[in-house]
Structure formats: structure tokens, C-alpha cells
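Example 9 (inverse folding). The structure is encoded as follows.
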């Protein structure tokens, strides 16, 4: 930011008043914006799945495709990658784990 050294300077008292006014405006804006967000905590908590939850009645919603001929399973992360991501042959290691 450019500074004009020829401009008249404000006293410390004026600077304090300006900073206080800026803080008041920031607090007012914060109060106004916080009233817009009105989320029920119980609704938010219901969407979380706890570990060990009973998922026996849930169905798989994606299609599982078997490993293709041009893919390999990394021996470090156990993810299936395309053969272009292979760095070593024995054991097969992907680019991310190498």
C-alpha cells in the first residue's frame, strides 16, 4: 500500500476512536450474519454415523466391478490402480506409495 508522507497525520486519540468504531461495526456485522445461520443441533447430530452402528438393513448403492487385466493391487496401500501407476513389479507398488 502506498503511503503519502505529505498528508497530515492523525493524533493517537483519533486513531483509537477509528479503531473502536471499526470494532463496533465488525461486531454489528457479525451479529447480523450469525442470525442467518440457524441450525438445529439435534438434526445435525442425527446425520452422523457412530462406529459400530447396525448397518444390516443397508444396501450397497454402487456397482462393484472386478479387477481388470490392465489393473494391479498395490502391496502397500492395497488399492487397485491402472498399470500406468505401477512403479515396481515385485512386489507391485503404486506411484503414490513409492
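The amino acid assigned to each position is listed next.
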Amino acid at each position: 500500500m502506498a503511503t503519502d508522507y505529505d498528508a497530515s497525520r492523525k493524533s493517537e486519540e483519533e486513531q483509537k476512536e477509528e479503531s473502536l468504531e471499526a470494532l463496533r461495526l465488525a461486531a454489528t456485522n457479525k451479529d447480523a450474519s450469525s442470525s442467518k445461520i440457524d441450525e438445529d443441533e439435534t438434526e445435525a447430530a442425527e446425520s452422523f454415523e457412530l462406529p459400530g452402528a447396525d448397518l444390516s438393513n443397508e444396501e450397497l448403492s454402487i456397482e462393484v466391478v472386478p479387477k481388470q487385466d490392465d489393473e494391479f493391487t498395490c502391496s502397500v496401500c492395497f488399492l487397485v490402480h491402472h498399470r500406468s501407476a505401477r512403479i515396481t513389479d515385485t512386489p507391485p507398488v503404486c506411484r503414490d506409495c513409492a
